Amino acid sequence: MAAQDYLKLKTSAPQIPMLVRIIAVAMSLFQLYTGLFQLTAMNQRVTHVTFGLVLIFLIYGWDQGRKKKISWDGYLLAAAALGLGVYVLATWFHKVGAAGMSPPIYELVLGTIFLALCVEAARRTLGWAFPIIAVVSIAYARFGEFLPNIIAHKNYPFERLVDSMFITTEGVFGMLAGISATYIFLFILFGTMLREAGGGEFFINLSFSLFGHVRGGPAKVAVVASSLFGMLSGSGTANVAGTGQITIPLMKRTGYPSTFAGAVEAVSSAGGLLMPPIMGSAVFIIMEILGVNYLTIMKAAGLSALLYYTGLFLMIDIEAQKRGMIGLPKDQLPSFVKTMKEGWYFLLPIGVLIFFLAYSKVSVTRAAFWATVAVPLCTILGGRKRMMRPSQIIRGLQNGALTALPVVAILALGGVVLGMITLTGLGLMMSSMLIDLSQGNLLLLLLLTMVASIILGMGVPPVAAYIVLAILVVPALIKLGVYPLAAHLFVFYFATIAGITPPMAPDAFVAAGISGAPMMRTALTACRLALVIFIVPYMFVYNNALLLVGSLGQILQVCITAFLGVVALAYATQNYLGGKLNLFYQLLLFLGSGLLIYPGWTSDIIGAVLLAGVYALRSPTLLGKLGLLRTRWGQAQAPSERN
Questions:
Q1: How far, in Å, CA of 186 to CA of 590, rounded?
Q2: Is 563 within 8 Å of 310 (Cβ atoms)?
Q3: Which of 284, 488, 502, 578 could form an SS bridge with 183, CB 3.0 to 4.6 Å?
Q4: Per residue in 147-158, pLDDT tens?
Q5: What is the dihedral angle through the alpha carbons of 314, 317, 319, 325, rounded to the nearest 10 degrees?
Q6: Of 133, 76, 68, 151, whose CA–CA distance to 414 is shortest?
Q7: Are 71 and 61 in contact (CB under 8 A)?
Q8: Is 598 contained in some domain?
């Protein structure tokens, strides 16, 4: 099967009931309206969450899957969510005027039902883990005095808890729901509109035309395509299930083992969540928590993401060298010129987004609005055959809302978790406990944070894990002097890496299912390929220049040495440089990599000398021509030997 044939593969999707389609389109139109016109924050959040709950109950069944038909309990729960949402819209303003007064009994009952609906909606879309965290946080707030002294607090009456979580901006309709309604939904809608217009196929074709013919081409295509889709989807697992259907068979066809092919797809998809400008929605939460400019976060995360994908590209290229692999024949690949001629206009909406974000004083919300609107307008430039039809626009609006539902569920229930932790002061207690446990040692605290992030990230989506960790753990890092943005990125990076880390590794396991490889071997291979991203967070914590903070000289130094360190790490991990390395050369490369990564001129110079020395001794194009290639410590492998 040629590459073009794989590009035509479509994943089957369940039929969507007409009622769900109508409500989903209405939700997207409402969000577009709020992207252009101002709306009271509470009205926007309540309407947003209500839309989300209604759609979740109509399309997700009791057993956590999308259904072709709406069940009776779906109708019942959707009606309850709608009724309670309308009640909040009608009464919240009067509630503000009655602040401090005890709520009536019926309102406590309604609030309890609404919280239960939020928990159930999250369970249907996300599974059990995050809802359990939310329920435990409520129980902790209610029964805190019965716990050990180290985490005990005074009890809060259940009435107080329900009242603060229901018709206020402290719970379900708090900051996180505002982020979802204001920023995240429109960026998700932008991505789905672009895919519906044909942008997804264009970017995959473009990736194949650029990298398909080079050594290890299909694997490099997987990296590019999966990073783009993962950035927009916000879910590494969903991205693997989508792009992996195309990239994994092609990688296997060109000679990559099943385990390696699945691992490449898993690592690429997980890394998409770390890619600016969207970063799987986390960028907007960080922006709100820190109160920093959107571009500041985007630029700060850019270099780290580039290091991640540089390391992955090198790993793939070295693997291809070891196996003597070549790229796909050009006659089986899309032509770059033809691809650009047929789809260049798909780059324009992205250009619109970047222009408004970087060079305009327009808000992030307004930038996402105009970028979304630009998608169907720009397709007109492709001619009558390629312009978006009304049916495609409607389908894009529909799919945008449906794609956003898990995020709505996460952030609505996340508001409850955030509210409970803030109310009880658990965040401050946890920070003090972590500092005491680490005895004020930053490295030990970072290691504890890494473990906590990975464990939590195994059970819940990365954004949900980040929310919990940002409240409980990040303050401790900041107290020990970590740059605030570095602290937030540190926990988010490791919550994301959890998707490929055993024993759970959901991203790697989905990829293994597609490739037919053993699941645990795929996960372990993915960890090896992603070794760089296990190190990069420590690099930017200890050297903020990696986040583009500092003088130009400092930034240039860390850029150069970090990239050299990644190169050394890739060759050492793959145990190959002009042939298989023996232990001596491999240890030299690991040492050189560590010295280059460690901040400081002295370590950088020594590391660079080690890397240059090993490369010179192992490269037939340099000292090998002078007869110095073969040394006492390492013998160049014969070209016929393969790993």
A1: 44
A2: yes
A3: 284
A4: 888 888 888 888
A5: 180
A6: 133
A7: yes
A8: yes
